[in-house]
Amino acid sequence: MLLARRDVAFARGRFALVGGVVALLTLLVALLSGLTGGLGSQSTSALCAAGKAGAARVLLAGDAVGLSSVTDAQLRNATAQDADALPLTIGMVRLEAGPGNGAASASPRASSGPVQAAVFAAPRPSAWVPSVPDSGVALPSAVADELGVGAGDTVTLNGIAQKVSSVSAPGLSYAHAPVVGLPESATREVLHTRTPNAILSADPALTVEGLTSATVKEAFNAVPGYRSEHGSLLLIQVILYVIAGLVVAAFLTIWTLQRTRDLALLRALGASEGFLVRDGLAQSAIVVLGGVLVGALSGWGLAGLASRAVPFEVSMATIGGPGLLVLAVGLLGSLAAVTRVRSINPLTALGGN
């Protein structure tokens, strides 16, 4: 360890450069991980909330929510097995403030344009879909503020007027759109359908012929755009991890080649192969750990700023997790590089080959 520290201090410029590259890679992976979590939450937070409230299975007729259609017979089959099974209708709507609302003209945050929203409609309120009203439409506070409306005002959904029944504080999202609640009786007029897209159930053994039964997490892939978006971001993260390992391995390989005579002299003086391997690993640990700490701390600081402008998840899992993975990948890359010292011939110190 003493030799490793002396080498790092002597060639501090080179090691600082590599440590800086590791820090940048850690920063990129941490920010990308937070963005992945934020975008994923913006697509699936409504389904996540249903899962946390006790929904165990989501039954769909197909691989996409928008293409799924549950028949009356399938719904009867599901409710016969689970009386609490909840049919859920999901659709995208154009949401605008209706004319003549006093709140809209009084609010300085009122939007001049429409808002795209995801409608969650069910026959009754439930812990899985708590925003479903008995009549009218239930808006999250962010949407109500953007439109400049409040309870009792009128909004239009796809041109159909509906009275705002309530404004709730928590806002859930589906497919990057805020979720608004609607009673099932209004879906024919607003969404031009009375056929639910899915069935939610707390029974993990519930199966219905013609429907695919999935866990809530598995149902994320049926959300429009989620699979491709999430998969692309994860692929970029994997590429960055590979780059981090290659950078550390390439640097230590070149550094080992440049130190061949010094290492050969140590071998000639009695140093074991294990000692030289541990020395190389100690050097890489100093550089990689320092770079990871700088990158993770920078990522934590920038994450707070990024979360104000873009969907971003700030947590130990999204910031600390990528840092630990970069550290592990970097050490694996260094292990592959420093094993070269095992083939160093002590005679090289005397000018031999």
From TrEMBL:
Transmembrane segments: 234-257, 285-307, 319-338
Stretches of the chain forming a coiled coil according to its record: none
Entry keyword Phosphoprotein: no
Residues in ABC3 transporter permease C-terminal domain copies: 237-346
GO cellular component, one term: plasma membrane
Membrane topology: Multi-pass membrane protein
Compartments where found: Cell membrane
Keywords assigned by UniProt, alphabetized: Cell membrane, Membrane, Transmembrane, Transmembrane helix, Transport
Protein's recorded name: ABC transport system permease protein
